[in-house]
Amino acid sequence: MRQHVNPLSHFFQLPLSLPSKSILFKNSHHPIHLDIGSAKGEFLIELAVKNPNWNFVGLEIRESLVSSSEKKRKQVGLQNLRFLYCNVNISLDEWLSDLDLEQLKRVSIQFPDPWFKRKHLKRRVLNKSLLYSIARSMSKDGELFIQSDIFKLIEYMSNVIDDSIYFDRKVFKGLKWLEQNPYQVSTDRELFVLKQNLPIYRAMYIRNSALFIN
Ligand SMILES: C[S@@+](CC[C@H](N)C(=O)[O-])C[C@H]1O[C@@H](n2cnc3c(N)ncnc32)[C@H](O)[C@@H]1O
Fold first, then answer.
1. Best mutation site among 9, 40, 125 for ligand 1 pocket (most ligand atoms within 8 Å of CB)
2. Would you call 93 a catalytic residue per the annotation?
3. What is the pTM of this model?
4. Chain centroid to CA 47: how far?
5. pLDDT tens digits in sequence order for the chain, 214 residues long
6. Can you name the residues that pair with 107 across neighbouring β-strands?
7. Ligand 1 midpoint to CA 174 (Å)
8. Residue 64 maps to which CATH number?
9. Catalytic residue among 98, 100, 113, 162
10. Is residue 23 part of a domain?
11. Cα 19 to ligand 1 centroid, rounded to whole Å
């Protein structure tokens, strides 16, 4: 299976209309946790089992991963979780605008594709435009959690967030980087990195009360 797709290719620039929350969820008013780049889906499956009063959405640009995640979800019989195929940089904004006020409580972006080469930097998933879509829809005190094993990438992501007025970085015990995953469930990539004993950089941001200005 190909490891990366180029999100800027013509094919992935076509907007997809994602099903509304009332089609996705029986209890469509429950708070929502969005995981961007949900890959094989194990992280959200575990969280959805543990948190029946939340709705979870995994967004993924590789269609085959969405199909296999959905298959696993159905086997477990989870009604509070859905995996959706899309390029978040193109299709997420419209879906977010359909949510109730205060409904988007958590967004996680974990170990996103690094796109190291300078000429590929525009392929990185977190950019100002995606951040603003999240900021516009997220409730006050909502959580934006990011983690990666690549320092240059997490530094870039935290700079994008720090440069906006909408999020405050949470500092734990005087430390800038969190030692543990706050959701106490590890992603596939996280487990792989932990096994190698390599460092992981994690940061939590909280949506502050700044009104969204377009
Ligand atoms: C390195 S993997 C990490 C997967 C998972 N979060 C983890 O920690 O194990 C990054 C995932 O993000 C997905 N992805 C990359 N760009 C995306 C985009 N623009 N929209 C949606 N998913 C994207 C990739 O296909 C890939 O599955």
1. 125
2. no
3. 0.96
4. 14
5. 456 888 888 878 788 889 999 999 999 999 999 999 999 999 999 999 999 999 999 999 999 999 999 999 999 999 999 999 999 999 999 999 999 988 999 999 999 999 988 888 899 999 999 999 999 999 999 999 999 999 999 999 999 999 999 999 999 888 889 999 999 999 999 999 999 999 999 999 999 999 998 7
6. 34, 144
7. 30
8. 3.40.50.150
9. 113
10. no
11. 20
